[in-house]
């Protein structure tokens, strides 16, 4: 009897085990039930038997960013077969709140099975979303774009360098990248350094081993003081990141994702140059310089030419200041200087030399001094102003005509005295004979003046009628009157700009207003339409030559640049002359 009971127990257990093994399971599993709005949610729909006609829920409140990914697991343990099939989805929350993942369905062996709904709570964004199964999250942790600034507290016009480095973790690969937003450096003079041929280097980021590549190097010279913003560089990068799947050899499989990375905004605090000790003739030079004035010869004959060269060399903002001008005696004919630049830009800033070469032609015999001139700059090493002066140079004109107004009577010291000429006929102004004539009486009646005054009013009547008709026609010409008023206003502002020479802000403001009013009159457009591209296209359509249009646009750019750049009186005079000349050319060429 006991044996029969034992057999029955064994049979019941075996039947229960077979029923359990034969039972179908189909369920939904989530990576987490509470997550931030900037995190990702993984949902797995698992079943222990193969089925057909799988239908996922609608995923209301989420965006599907990945999936469905299908995986199958089939194993034997102690003679028992274990089967699992999974459909995986990756979801991004659309907003905060509580959402329900609905039921998924599948057909297994002719029966329909459904999952249990799952509630998910979405909170505010967290500082650092974590989802190691999400390739985008893996990429965000393994790739970084960094902007390294050499100096965050420079002086005005002191060079700083911004180096952009792309750091990539050793387990991550980069296929390609594309710049989608490039910094403009509005408050800086900028120069890009060639980075072609750069190789991948090993380094560390946040204390971990990384590989990095230098993408960009830019030298900046701040043009105004205070807190300045360096805009970010943004890239779209194609990244290869590892997954949890492995190939038949056990190596992890890689997947490709596109990732947008940004270097972030950087702020620097630009210090003004000290006012204490600033020379009156300081033109904005900052760096370490040398200064000299040389001539191609010191002895020559009249009407021959020589070159006088004013040169500054060294390291600093060589392209951002003006050289001092030489002053010469009026007896020497001097031509406009030829400006030359031999400047290279590296990560340490600009270095080289700039010079002005003057062609000088003496007209008379004598000795002429080229006075000493000086050049001042701000030395970054000592943080103080320095002044360099040239030596006086004597130009000895050996042969040529003598200046009748002033002959060099003392050649040893170059002192010029007035020469007195004697004349044997110096008393010729005394008259010894007369040529008196009798006075003839003249009458006004019937003279030319009489007839002119008598007939003039009658002759003026037709002229007055003609003038009046022309005036009426002109008054009716609304467009023409608008053009004439604008031309008059432009001349007024040009005249005003000339009065402001020496006052940078007032001069360039008046000059810019004059150009705007001239364009309004010439092109019949309003100020709101005045973009550089539109100005260029309209002038070219009117038949204005390309070089004249480019000169006109360049004057506008000079007006904008003058707000941030030291400007001398010579430059302002040159801009005024160029504006007057360009307006004249446009009037002649425009249809």
From TrEMBL:
- Which UniProt keyword terms apply here? Membrane, Signal, Transmembrane, Transmembrane helix
User: So which residues are the signal peptide here?
Assistant: 1-22
Q: Name one Pfam family in it.
A: BatD
Task: Please verify whether the record's keywords include Ribonucleoprotein.
Answer: no
Kindly indicate whether the keyword RNA-binding belongs to this entry: no
Give the transmembrane ranges. Answer: 449-467
Note the PANTHER family from the entry.
BATD (PTHR40940:SF2), PROTEIN BATD-RELATED (PTHR40940)
Its protein name is: BatD protein
**Organism source for this protein?**
Jejuia pallidilutea
């Amino acid at each position: 009897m006991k044996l029969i009971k034992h057999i029955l127990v064994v049979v019941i257990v075996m039947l229960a085990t077979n029923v359990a093994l034969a039972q179908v399971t189909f369920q939904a599993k989530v990576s987490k039930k509470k997550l931030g709005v900037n995190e990702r949610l993984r949902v797995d729909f698992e079943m222990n038997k193969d089925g057909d006609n799988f239908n996922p829920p609608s995923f209301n409140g989420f965006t599907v960013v990945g999936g469905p990914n299908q995986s199958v697991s089939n194993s034997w343990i102690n003679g028992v077969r274990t089967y699992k099939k999974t459909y995986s989805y990756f979801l991004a929350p659309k907003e905060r709140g509580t959402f329900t993942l609905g039921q998924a369905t599948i057909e297994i062996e002719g029966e329909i099975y459904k999952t249990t709904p799952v509630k998910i709570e979405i909170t505010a964004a967290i500082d650092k979303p974590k989802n190691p199964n999400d390739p985008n999250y893996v990429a965000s942790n393994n790739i970084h774009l960094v902007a390294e600034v050499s100096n965050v507290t420079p002086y005005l016009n002191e060079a700083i360098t911004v180096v952009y480095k792309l750091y990539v973790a050793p387990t991550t690969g980069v296929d390609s990248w594309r710049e989608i937003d490039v910094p403009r450096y509005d408050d800086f003079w900028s120069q890009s350094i060639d980075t072609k041929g750069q190789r991948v280097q090993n380094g560390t980021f946040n204390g971990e081993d990384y590989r990095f590549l230098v993408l960009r190097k830019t030298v900046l010279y701040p043009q105004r003081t205070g807190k300045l913003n360096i805009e970010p560089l943004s890239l779209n990068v194609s990244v290869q990141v590892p997954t949890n799947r492995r190939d038949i050899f056990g190596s992890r499989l890689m997947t490709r994702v596109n990732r947008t990375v940004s270097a972030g905004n950087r702020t620097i605090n630009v210090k003004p140059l000290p006012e204490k000790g600033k020379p009156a003739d300081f033109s904005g030079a900052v760096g370490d310089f040398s200064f000299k004035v040389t001539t191609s010869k010191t002895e020559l004959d009249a009407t021959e030419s020589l070159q006088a060269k004013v040169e500054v060399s060294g390291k600093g903002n060589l392209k951002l200041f003006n050289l001092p001008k030489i002053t010469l005696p009026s007896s020497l004919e001097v031509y406009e200087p030829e400006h030359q630049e031999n400047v290279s830009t590296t990560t340490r800033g600009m270095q080289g030399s700039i010079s002005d070469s003057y062609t000088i032609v003496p007209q008379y015999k004598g000795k002429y001094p080229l006075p000493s001139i000086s050049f001042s700059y701000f030395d970054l090493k000592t943080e103080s102003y320095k002044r360099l002066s040239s030596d006086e140079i004597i130009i000895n004109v050996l042969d040529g005509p003598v200046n009748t107004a002033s002959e060099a009577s003392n050649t040893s010291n170059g002192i010029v005295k007035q020469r007195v000429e004697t004349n044997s006929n110096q008393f010729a102004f005394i008259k010894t004979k007369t040529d008196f004539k009798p006075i003839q009486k003249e009458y006004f009646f019937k003279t030319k003046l009489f007839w002119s005054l008598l007939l003039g009013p009658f002759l003026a009547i037709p002229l007055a009628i003609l003038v009046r008709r022309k005036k009426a026609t002109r008054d009716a010409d609304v467009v023409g009157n608008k053009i004439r008023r604008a031309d008059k206003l432009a001349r007024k502002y040009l005249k005003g700009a000339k009065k402001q020479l020496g006052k940078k802000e007032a001069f360039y403001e008046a000059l810019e207003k004059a150009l705007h009013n001239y364009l309004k009159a010439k092109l019949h457009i309003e100020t709101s339409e005045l973009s550089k591209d539109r100005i260029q296209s309209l002038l070219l359509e009117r038949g204005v030559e390309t070089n004249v249009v480019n000169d006109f646009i360049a004057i506008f750019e000079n007006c904008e640049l003058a707000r941030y750049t030291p400007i001398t009186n010579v430059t302002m005079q040159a801009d005024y002359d160029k504006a007057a000349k360009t307006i004249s050319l446009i009037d002649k060429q425009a249809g």
